[in-house]
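Researcher: We're teaching a course module on how sequence relates to structure. For the next exercise, students receive a sequence and then see the predicted structure as tokens, so they can try to spot secondary structure elements on their own. Here is the exercise chain.
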Amino acid sequence: APAFAQDAAPQADDGSIADIVVTATRREESQNKIPLAIQALSGDALAKLNVTNFEKLVEYLPNVRTASRGPGISSIYIRGLSTDTAGAQILGVSGVQPNVALYLNDAPSSTPGRNLDVYSADLQRVEVLAGPQGTLFGASAMGGAIRYITNKPDLSEFKAGFSASASTTKGGSQSYSAQGFVNIPIVKDTFGIRLVVFNDNQGGYIDNVAGTYRMPFNSGSPGRIPTGNPLLVAQAIQSCVGVVNCVGTATGTSGGYIAPTRQSISNSAFIEDNYNDASYAGGRLEAKWNINEDWTLSAMHMRQTLKTDGVFDYDPSVGDLKVQKYSPNTLKDTFDMTTLTLNGRLGMLDLIYAGSYLNRRAIQNSDYATYANIGLFMPFYNCDRGVYYSGYAGSAAQGNTCYSPANSYLVDNKNKRWTHELRLTTPADKRIRATVGAFYDVNKILDDTEWRYTLPAAGFLYSLTPTAATNVLGLGPRPVGTGFVNVIERRDRQYAFYGEVSFDLVPDKLTLTGGLRYYNSEVSMRGGSNSSFSDALRGIYNPVTGTYSRAATPPTTFVTSSNLSVNLAGINPTTYSGVIFKGNLTYKITPDQLVYATYSEGFRPGGFNRKGCNSTSGSGGLSAAQCAANRSYAPDNAKNYEIGAKLGLFDRTMQINLAAYKIEWTGIQMAAFDQNISNQTFVVNLANARIYGFEGDLNWRPTRELTIGAGFSYNDSKLTGYVPALKVLGQRILVPLGSPLALSPKFQGNMRVRYEWETSSGLKPYVQAGMHYVGKTITSNIDNTNIIYTGCQSPYGGGIYGANSCSNPTATINGVTVRAGDAIGPIKGSFNQPSFTTFSAAIGVSRDEWRVELFGENIGDKRPKLFTSANDGDTRVTTSRPQTFGLRVSYSM
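Model: And here is the predicted structure for the students to work with:
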């Protein structure tokens, strides 16, 4: 086995670039001597760069981007294969599988939109494999793979260490962290353990400031149509059908319309400075047993709890690093991962068995008041029925008030995953070498998501239970105010067989490698969605008091919004299978220099939609056949054509790694919330794209004291076409063809410089500085899902407008003519994000086992737009932590 970074015996510094042994090819090989675009950061490098979580790690990965809404809620992209993701509240059921595989050692740990945010304590290294890695790493390795490799027990001697830090953020709260490890060889050279613990409390920097909010509606003025909630706008237009220059009046006389009374909500109970704090706490226990000279058994258990309070994206319209939130915003994300690894020899073959079990639960409470901006159903849930049903508008017997929108949602996601992998490798020193393996994976997501926006003031007085036909999680009565519930089990089962063979056409010079993977993936979904969208589920309105009272016989269950046993009848479960390939030709110029050409493929599984269309006969421009097809979505695929070079120069004091590539991405899975088609987010294979790219990294030691590192990537990404069957949909909701892929900057890069020397007294002072640049991007390839005026019918197919039926849908309102097909609720989905540059620096000194350091991050106090989101009805920007300075002390023996 390779020596571990922290445990290696001290070696004389010959001034060359340190090499890192990686297992990216499923063998132990030097990072700079394998024909693969890989970046590896050692545990020592991670400590020097102050990398603790994934958001910090990305700054040093020149071809990696994220779509992040804060700790624990992010999607990862490599080489520009990205289109944005669904909102946080429906990631468990409507989020697509990641296209970058995330591993903790040999254990897959990816999940839609909520990748494990592993705290980087006592890691041996992090490996980043760029480009499709489907043959060796399987599903979801379409864009690449990221692997966290932990330090294993050292059976030779006792070791221990710790690190602690304190820092202050400009305009924010203080942060504190501590971590430590102890390595105990219980039976020398035979059995030992390694224990790691950590606790990191990160202070907030976003303020929740005073504000009020009410359901938006502007009745308009001459030359303008109303704006605001789409349902209120649609009803105002509808009431003006046949009336020239219709206007809103206090009484609705003379052909006018009556705007509802709208109450406001205040966030006075939640005002707080620096309220977006986060904490990581947990530990890891690893054990290693050398059974004999040929067999070793290792086990690991890791537990981590991530807690956050507040939001990590601010609202620019409110102010710098400020928001207005009206309900609690909290996250508690806990995972336990257990792994078992057996290494041994069978004759000349090396055998590895790796098994893992992941048990994770994420509970998130979020404010949802501003969903009243765009939600077509919100006037039903938040207002008197006289507001929602235009046939009753102005009727005192039905009410005309929209109440204080105290809307929120609760996500309770459980993720259980079992994996088994068996791998055989032949000797590495033979002219023909092979790796073959088998893989089995069962991944379950149990989703209970509750939207709490049925207001008691609007008559929703009952605690209801999901219908028996959908209640696969066995939930009991939900709290009063719950209006919509997902009760869903999502299951992905896959098995695969893979192999890779290398043959030295010319020994030590020219090598040909071929690989393939057969996969068989079964996807299924059980349960469904429940709602309170029924007059029978609200109380009895008293027009005298303007209040609601309970019925003599209260209802006890929701109504079914989507029953997956019905919606997916005949196609659930569905199995996808296929074979993907890899080919590589490598020429070694010298022992330290090589060039290569690679062809590789990747894929991610398909899945199901809860409700593909509101009507099986067609909806929002989709035909009946397209709606039937929209119940599910197929795998998407990527093909990668790549050439590269790894060049050790000047006695290996300089290492340059380069790669150029073309990627073809077909049948791209995209999540859309288009209320003209479905009132539930759906995923569809909508478009194709291509990427031309060039990436590289450089490490250089011009002297033994000075180290320079840099990395860059250039990606020219472009949407090239629509999936033919959905061309009309693509033309309506996507950015134009030729546009770049979301979150894919043309250029990004980083640079870091470290100068370290030793004094005559034995002290080792050092200074280091870093720079991180990201070019401009767009946030999503879905540009809009505008709500369309369809005359006198609802986008859901009719019925909700009561007695106001008409044959002529055209209306002239305030001098503006509105026709069927006009957008009345513009919903922008894609935002421009400008380029940005951030800087960090540190100065410190070490001696023997001690190190003390002063550090600064985001020294220029920039507000980079890392991710802009409008999924929840308002626009918010995720940014970096403001200017931060701190002190760190560490000790290792």
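Model: If you want an answer key for the exercise: Confidence is low (pLDDT under 50) at residues 1-10, 794-805. The chain is about 5% helix and 50% strand.
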